[in-house]
Amino acid sequence: MTSVTRADLMARYDLGRSTLEKWFRERASNGHPEPDGRCGQQLTWDADEWSAWYASRETASPAPSGLATRDQLAEAHGLSKHALKDLWAARASNGHPEPAHRHGKALYWDAEEWASWYQGFSRARDRAPEKELVTLAEAGRLLGLAPSTVTVYASRPPKGWPEPVEEVPLGGGRTRRLYRRADILAYAARKA
Predict the structure, then answer these.
(1) How far apart are CA 100 and CA 115, in angstroms?
(2) Rounded to whole angstroms, how far apart are CA atoms 9 and 122?
(3) 104 within 8 A of 160, measured Cβ to Cβ
(4) Domain ranges for the chain
(5) Radius of gyration, alpha carbons of the chain
(6) pTM for the predicted model, two decimal places
(7) Average pLDDT, consecutive stretches of 10 residues, N- to C-terminus, the chain (192 residues)
(8) Are 96 and 88 in contact (CB under 8 A)?
(9) Reduced to 3 DSSP states, what percent helix, strand and coil does the chain have, rounded to the nearest 5?
(10) Alpha-carbon span 122 to 87, nearest angstrom
(11) Where are the alpha helices (DSSP H) in 133-172?
(12) Long-range CB contacts (within 8 A, 24+) of 15-23
C-alpha cells in the first residue's frame, strides 16, 4: 500500500491545494476517501483508493458531446496546459471563445468552435512571429531541448542565448522570463 500526501496529489494530478482541501472538507457529501495516516504533520491517503475516487469523479460528469475540457484541447492541439491558461487569461485581447458549458468550476468549450478560433489565432500570430513572446519552457520546446536542460539557461545562458525581453515577477521569488520567438529561432539557426 502506497500513501500520498496533498503535495503528492498536487504534483501527480495538477490540482491546487485549495481544491484538495475543499474536497476533503466536503467528504461527507462527495465520498472523498478518509486519511490513512500521517507523514509528519501532513495527512496521507491510500494512493490507489484516492486515484479510484478521483477517476470516478472525473467520469461522473463527462463533457457533453462535442465539448472539450482545457486538457482535451491541449492534447488535441499539442499545447501545454500553461499555454491554454495564458490564452484564456488574454481572452479580452485575443478573442478566445467563451465556454459553451460549465459544471462547477469545470469549463467546456465547443471543440469545433475552439479549433476554428485557434487556427485563425495561429495564422495571425505566425504572420508576426517577431512580436510573439514565449516562456523559457516554450523556447526549450521550440529547440527540442529537455526541460531540465533549458531551465539552467536562465542562470547560465549558453553563448549567443538571447536576453529576455520581459521579466515578470511571480510568487515565491520566481521570475517568468519572456523571449521573442524570432530571437529563439535565430539562436537555433546560428547553432545549426
Answers:
(1) 14
(2) 34
(3) no
(4) 3-60, 67-127, 131-191
(5) 20
(6) 0.42
(7) 89 85 88 92 92 77 75 84 84 88 81 90 67 85 85 89 88 87 85 70
(8) yes
(9) 55, 15, 30
(10) 11
(11) 136-143, 147-150
(12) 19/105
